[in-house]
């Protein structure tokens, strides 16, 4: 890692990266479908000022740009404190509480929730950066007896 890559993001760069993350749509790739001229107008800055702000983010590998889009890379997400690769949370539930627990979990929009047969009752797939939020919720949910969490290192 070069010295430049070790430097923290400037406040301005962090704000821009964070803004793009909020606007992005996607599961594991965060892509904003917008022309840079439109984004500059939304941010109330000139197109040239946006270009100056984007340049270090592009050079450091935090974003990729193309005709009509900006993508936040894995490196950019990590700079924002997000771990975008999926985490799998395996959940065991007391048999007599299953319907109630399933209803409670269904009210939340955590990600993919699969009811399964086997050693566990549910497998919840969430963005890795949301794992703590989901585990906090599950730890306070009556009927949940056990959880195990697995973070994706690499998709093969």
Overview of the structural elements:
The protein has 156 residues and is α+β, with helices and mostly antiparallel strands. It folds into two domains: 3-79, Arc Repressor Mutant, subunit A; 86-151, Alpha-Beta Plaits (2-Layer Sandwich), CATH 3.30.70.920. It is built from seven helices and seven strands; from the N terminus they run ααβααββαβαββαβ. The chain has helices at 3-6, 11-23, 36-43, 47-59, 74-79, 98-107, 131-139; strands at 30-32, 63-66, 69-72, 86-93, 112-115, 122-127, 144-151. It has a four-stranded antiparallel β-sheet with strand order 5-6-4-7, covered by helices on one side. Strand 5 and strand 6 (122-127) form a beta hairpin. It is elongated and about 60 Å long. It starts with a helix and ends in a 5-residue tail after the last strand.
Layout of secondary structure:
Blueprint: H1 3-6, H2 11-23, E1 30-32, H3 36-43, H4 47-59, E2 63-66, E3 69-72, H5 74-79, E4 86-93, H6 98-107, E5 112-115, E6 122-127, H7 131-139, E7 144-151
Antiparallel strand pairs: 1-3, 2-3, 4-6, 4-7, 5-6
Helix pairs in contact: 2-4, 3-4
